[in-house]
Design brief:
By secondary structure, the protein is mainly α. It has helices at about 1-20, 25-30, 35, 40-60, 65-85, 90-105, 105-115, 125-150, 160-175, 190-205, 215-240, 250-255, 255-270, 270-285, 290-315, 320-340, 355-365, 370-375, 380-425, 430-435, 440-470, 470-475. The protein is globular.
Length: about 500
C-alpha cells in the first residue's frame, strides 16, 4: 500500500511536467499557432486544479480505492488516445479530460501513503512526501524532453500511460476495499467558479505578457473573469455553500496552515528559476531539451541530501524550525546570486554543475518544512480538506511567477537593447573592428540581442534571490508548539472539528 501511494504521488508530480516539456513538439504536431498552442496547457491545468479541489468530495462519494483506480485508468486511456491525435480540437478536448483524471490522483494517493504507514514510520512520511514531489517534477521534465526529441511529440504520452496502468494494478492488488460511500450534495457552483478561476489564471500566465497585457481585449476579459470568479468562490465557500468542496474555514482555525500555504505560494513563484535556467540553456547556449533536463535532474541527487538533513536537524531539535527555514532561504538566495554571475553568453554547461548541486541542497531543505506546516498539527478529520490547499497553493505561485517574470524579462531585455543601440555606432571602436573583420550589421544585431537576453536572465536570477528572502518574515508567523512542527506526527486536539462534510 505504501509503495502504491508513493508511486501514485510520483506520477502526479512527473506526468504533467513530462507532457508540458513536450508542448512545443505537440504544437507542431497539430499545426497550431502560438495562440492556439497555449490552450493545450490551459485546458489541461484548468480541469487539473479544479479536480484537486473537488477530490475530497469525490473521495467521500466514490472511495479512495475506486477513485484512484478510475483516475489512473482514465489518465492512461486518454494518454493512449492522445498518442495518435493530429487534430487540435480533438487534442484540446482530450487534454481537458486528461487533466480531470490527473487532478483526482493526488488526494487519494497521499492519503493512501500516509494512512498506510505504521506508527513507527509515520514521522518519515512528511520528508518522503516532499522528496517524492520534488523528484517527480524534475524527472518529468527530463523524460518529456528525452521522449519528444527521440521519438516524436506523441511519445510524451506513452510513459505516463504505461506507468499509470502499472500503478493502477498495484493499487488494485494492495489497497483495501472502500467503505460504504457517503451521499453528499455536489457543490456545483463552487466547482464551476474554481474551474473558471484556474482556467482564466492559467490563460493570463500563458498569454498576458505575450499579448501586451491590458492592451489586448482577451487579457482584460480573462483578468475580469479571474478576479470575479476568485472573489465569488471565496465568498461562496465561506458563507454560501452548505457543503463547500474547498474548506477555506481552515485558514481561520490553523495559523500554521496559513503560513504554510503562503510559503508554498512563494516556493511556487521561485520555481520559475528552473524554467528560466532551461530557457537560458536552450536559447543562449544551444542545449537540447534532453541536456537541459539532465542539468535539472542533477538537483534530484542533492534533494536526497537537503530534505533529510533539514528533517533530522529539526526533529532532533538541533535547529529550530524557523532557523532552519531562514538558513535554507539564505542558501537558496545565494545560489540564485551565483547563477546570476555565471549566466553569460560564453558560459559552459559544466560551469553550472556545482552550483546546481548546491542549489538542490538548500532548495530541498526549504521545501521540506512546508508540508509539515500545512499538514501536521491538524486533527485527522481536517487532513482530507488540507491536502488540496497544500497542493493548489504552489501552482498559484507558479502562475503568478510566469506573468511577473516574463514581463520583467521582456522589459529588461528591451531596456538593454535600447542602451546598446545608442552605443553601437561606427564611431565605437569595437563596432568598427567587428565590421572591419567581415562582420555584418545583421550579425552585430543578432549578437546584441542575444547579449541583451542574457543580461535580462541574470537580472531576473538576482530578483528571484531577493524574492527568496521573503521567506524570512514569514517564519516569524510560525507557531512552534511543544511537539516540533516538522516531526510529521499530527497532534489531535481535545475536540476535533470536521473539516468538510466529506471529511
Amino acid at each position: 500500500m505504501i509503495v502504491a501511494g508513493v508511486f501514485a504521488l510520483f506520477l502526479d508530480s512527473a506526468t504533467p511536467n513530462l507532457i508540458n516539456t513536450g508542448l512545443p513538439f505537440l504544437q507542431g504536431r497539430v499545426s497550431a499557432t502560438p495562440d492556439e498552442g497555449s490552450w493545450l496547457l490551459t485546458t489541461f491545468n484548468a480541469t487539473y486544479y479544479a479536480l484537486i479541489g473537488l477530490s475530497p468530495w469525490l473521495y467521500a462519494c466514490v472511495g479512495r480505492r475506486r477513485l484512484l483506480l478510475i483516475s489512473l485508468s482514465g489518465f492512461a486511456l486518454t494518454s493512449l488516445a492522445l498518442f495518435s491525435v493530429t487534430s487540435l480540437d480533438v487534442m484540446l478536448v482530450l487534454r481537458s479530460v486528461q487533466g480531470a483524471f490527473a487532478g483526482a490522483i493526488f488526494v487519494p494517493a497521499a492519503l493512501l501513503m500516509f494512512l498506510s504507514l505504521p506508527p513507527a514510520l509515520l514521522p518519515y512520511g512528511i520528508p518522503a512526501f516532499a522528496l517524492v514531489a520534488l523528484t517527480g517534477a524534475s524527472s518529468g521534465a527530463y523524460l518529456g524532453g528525452f521522449f519528444a526529441e527521440t521519438y516524436g511529440a506523441g511519445s510524451v504520452f506513452i510513459p505516463g500511460a504505461i506507468a499509470t496502468v502499472a500503478v493502477a494494478a498495484l493499487v488494485a492488488l494492495a489497497a483495501p476495499s472502500d467503505k460504504k460511500p457517503e451521499r453528499i450534495p455536489f457543490d456545483g457552483l463552487g466547482f464551476m467558479l474554481s474551474l473558471l478561476m484556474f482556467g482564466s489564471m492559467q490563460y493570463l500566465a500563458n498569454e498576458g505578457e505575450r499579448r501586451d497585457w491590458f492592451n489586448d481585449g482577451s487579457v482584460v476579459l480573462a483578468t475580469a473573469l479571474c478576479a470575479c470568479s476568485a472573489l465569488s468562490l471565496i465568498g461562496w465557500e465561506l458563507n454560501g455553500a452548505r457543503y463547500p468542496h474547498l474548506n477555506m474555514h481552515l485558514f481561520a482555525r490553523f495559523a500554521n496552515l496559513r503560513v504554510g500555504a503562503a510559503l508554498n505560494v512563494l516556493l511556487g513563484f521561485l520555481g520559475y528559476g528552473i524554467t528560466l535556467f532551461v530557457l537560458f540553456l536552450q536559447q543562449s547556449l544551444g542545449a537540447s531539451a534532453t541536456t537541459s533536463g539532465e542539468m535539472i535532474l542533477l538537483r534530484v541527487a542533492t534533494y536526497l541530501i537537503g530534505i533529510p538533513l533539514a528533517y533530522v536537524l529539526i526533529l532532533k531539535k538541533i535547529l529550530d524550525l524557523r532557523i532552519a527555514l531562514i538558513i535554507a532561504a539564505a542558501g537558496t538566495a545565494l545560489s540564485f546570486v551565483s547563477f546570476s554571475h555565471l549566466v553569460t553568453s560564453t558560459s559552459a554547461l559544466t560551469s553550472f554543475v556545482l552550483i546546481s548541486l548546491i542549489f538542490g541542497v538548500f532548495f530541498g531543505a526549504l521545501n521540506q518544512p512546508t508540508p509539515s506546516l500545512v499538514l501536521t498539527g491538524l486533527p485527522p478529520t481536517a487532513l482530507l480538506a488540507a491536502l488540496p490547499i497544500y497542493k493548489l497553493s504552489a501552482p498559484i505561485g507558479t502562475m503568478l511567477s510566469f506573468g511577473v517574470c516574463e514581463t520583467f524579462l521582456d522589459h529588461r531585455t528591451a531596456l538593454v537593447q535600447s542602451r546598446q543601440a545608442a552605443a553601437e555606432t561606427l564611431q565605437n571602436p569595437s563596432v568598427a573592428s567587428f565590421i572591419a573583420h567581415g562582420g555584418t550589421p545583421g550579425d552585430l544585431a543578432s549578437l546584441a540581442n542575444g547579449q541583451a537576453a542574457v543580461v535580462a536572465d541574470a537580472a531576473l536570477m538576482f530578483m528571484l534571490a531577493l524574492a527568496t528572502l521573503l521567506v524570512i518574515p514569514l517564519t516569524f508567523l510560525i507557531q512552534v508548539k511543544k511537539a516540533p512542527a516538522a516531526s510529521g506526527q499530527p497532534s489531535t486536539p481535545a475536540k476535533s472539528e470536521p473539516a468538510t462534510a466529506p471529511a
